[in-house]
Amino acid sequence: MTPDQVRRRALAGFLRSRRERLTPRDVGILAGTRRRTPGLRREEVALLSGVSVTWYTWLEQGRRISVSRQVLEGLARALMLDAAERRHLFALAGEPPEEPDPAEGPGAALQQLVDALDPHPAYCLDAHWNLVAWNRAEAALIGDPALLPTQERNLVRMVFTDPRFRTLLADWPGQARHLVAQFRADARHRVGDPGLTRLTDGLRRESEEFRTWWEAHDIAGFRANRRRFHHPRAGLLTLDYVKLAALDAPGVKLFACVPADAETAGKLPDLLASGAPEAGTTTG
Length: 284
Known about the structure:
The protein is of the alpha+beta class. The protein has 2 domains: 3-92, Orthogonal Bundle (434 Repressor (Amino-terminal Domain)); 108-274, 2-Layer Sandwich (Beta-Lactamase), CATH 3.30.450. Helix content is 46%, strand content 12%. It contains 13 helices and 5 strands. The protein has a 5-stranded antiparallel sheet. β3 (225-231) and β4 form a beta hairpin. α2 (42-49) crosses α4 (69-78). InterPro entries: Cro/C1-type_HTH, Lambda_DNA-bd_dom_sf, MLTR_LBD.
């Protein structure tokens, strides 16, 4: 059996199982008195989905037929699929679902996880790379974002408009340019988004470096990388960054930092104890 046949058989079984769990009453159909089929009939699902009975029957038989996104949406509604089931249906049909709407924040559980990572710096970014969560260690490293207006808590904006970052990052030009390439790659699903346009237009006006590197159209994927910081109180810190996606908060990314050497590991508790430097001020 080929992989395509396995996938089509799995799709057929999934559709059949979802059809059989529903009752006519669930979808507003009069059941009648003589029903030998558990759940809904195929013709009822076809009617609710806006497809022919023959076509739907072939789909449940695992035949090789094309399925459009519009039809999948109709099937998901007719079968009353939840979000997880909808994603599963699209995957089995070989049609990945559209990106979910970005979450507005990390949620309480994710914030607790970020806090629990102290003394290791950790933070969360939303789909536009706004800082939406951070722990005390991160605040001690870069300055407390809570001291900034909400609209200015954007990592890209901070790196390019806050003078502190030019001395805090050991290789500001290299890291800043790479950040722009990562940001452009991550923003590919939101081209034309008003919030993204406002952010990039503003940075192009405020920063010549950002304008130059943004217009270069360089693209970089994220991989675990190493960053070096010249902290005004802790001295040189070398941290390895790890990125995790929050599945229950679409668009939110968790970044956790672990010490790259024993010297940095020994400094992190003192960094945490020192508290956050004042955000938005130059240090040297």
